[in-house]
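TL;DR need structure tokens for one chain.
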Amino acid sequence: MSETSPAFERTYLVTDQEAVHFMGPGVLPVLATPALLMWMELTAREQVLPLLSAGEDTVGTAVELKHLAATPVGMKVRIVSRLVGVEGRAYKFELEAFDEFDKIGEATHGRASVLVAKFAAKVQAKQAKARS
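>> reply
TL;DR here they are.
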């Protein structure tokens, strides 16, 4: 793919579940970086799903994330995903995140398409091996 695809957007609400609490009393809980990353991955995955064949899904393969600003619990975060490259089973995305006031994050993200049944079988084999 030589051109950037149209932007794909999803909005999420920062709840206590996605917040960092380790900074102590007097510091309002804010969106945790792992939660921001998860929302970016979910948005990129959702964007590419219509391009996949039946029985396929994608898994994350790479990420470079900059978390630029804090977002308190109760605010909305808008994730903007752009599919900027496709090479075989590999998909490359550029993502941005905005709360109600600021740009709060940016990332590049790689995903790869997988056959769900084949992926599940590999995970089950690994789990069985770990138990023995």
